[in-house]
Amino acid sequence: MWEILKTVHYLSFSVAIGAGVSNLVLGARLVGFPPEAMPPLGGFRLLLGKLSTIGLALLWLTGISMVASAPDMNYLENPAFLWKLAAVVVLTLFSIAANVTVAQAKKAGGPPDANRMKQFGFGSQAMAILAVLLAVVAFT
């Protein structure tokens, strides 16, 4: 069971960070696209955002399951793990803020504020990278 959880955890991370990076790259390239291309590209960016959110949710589920079933290991006594967990919490807050911003913009009938979404995207990616680096330290 442990190996299945770990595999799903790694795949979920790949989806979350891959979709997030793709969304940032696409957003940076939108400046050169004609206005009529914006609606379909915006829809694609929404899909990438949903994939990132699903990946993050699976990371939480598998991570909690792995910690709960960890053989002979007390992660709460591992400072690197606690810092990793803090980075994941901040990442999750960025994700929630981005999802709320998108939902409010959809409700208002327009696109979300591009600068705000860019900040959420870069903040999320920074926290994701930090969480991976800290996981390497925590688990090696």
Give a description of the structure.
With 140 residues, this protein is mainly alpha-helical. It has one domain (2-138). Helix content is 81%, strand content 0%. The protein contains four helices and no strands. Helix 1 packs antiparallel against helix 4 (114-138) and helix 2 runs antiparallel to helix 3 (79-108). It is elongated, with a radius of gyration of 17 Å.
**Content of β-strand:** under 5%
- Element pattern in H and E: HHHH
Could you give the distance between the termini?
Answer: 21 Å
In the predicted model, the low-confidence regions spanning at least 5 consecutive residues are none
Q: Quickly count the domains.
A: 1
Radius of gyration: 17 Å
Mean pLDDT: 91
What is the tally of beta strands? 0
Largest sheet: none
With helices defined by DSSP (H or I, 4 residues minimum), what is the helix count?
A: 4
Outline of the structure:
The protein has 140 residues and is mostly helical. The protein has helices at residues 2-29, 38-68, 79-108, 114-138.
